[in-house]
Amino acid sequence: MKSPREPDLELRGRLIRSLGSLREMLPGSFVERKRACGRPNCHCADGKRLHSQFQISVLIDGKPKALNIPAGLAEKVRQKIEMRRRFDAAATTICSVNLKRLIKEKEERQV
Ligand SMILES: [Zn+2]
């Protein structure tokens, strides 16, 4: 027998179960820079068709670093950083569900 529907608990369960799919998440923020390589014959010499340089800004041992990301990995890395955002959003929602439940439990004890 299922107890009366508790939408908050269903939401919490759904979020918890979704976290496994975010296990490849990465920290930091993803940056795409445009740059010229400096070779005079390259298409980038016109100053318009520049090269993309992908980087992630992260803290390594507490210090801010920019890591260059090879173009072939850029999309994958971008998605993994996006996973971190979804993880944080899920954690925020789970915490607010739990906080609501704590406040309710506290009130019930005061009766
Ligand atoms: Zn170039």
Largest sheet: 3 strands, antiparallel
Task: List the ions, cofactors and other small molecules found in this model.
Answer: zinc ion
Residues in helices, as a percent range: 40-55%
Order of SSEs:
HEEEH
Strand order of the largest sheet: 1-2-3
Shape: elongated
Individual helix count: 2
The average pLDDT score comes to 94
Keywords:
111 residues; alpha+beta; 2 helices
Structure description:
The protein has 111 residues and is an alpha+beta fold. It has one domain (7-109). The chain has two helices and three strands. It has helices at residues 7-18, 71-109; strands spanning 29-35, 51-60, 63-69. Strands 1-2-3 form a three-stranded antiparallel β-sheet. The longest helix has 39 residues, at 71-109. The two termini are 29 Å apart. The relative contact order is 0.18. The mean pLDDT is 94. The structure holds zinc ion (ZN). Zinc ion binds at residues 36-37, 39, 42, 44, 51.
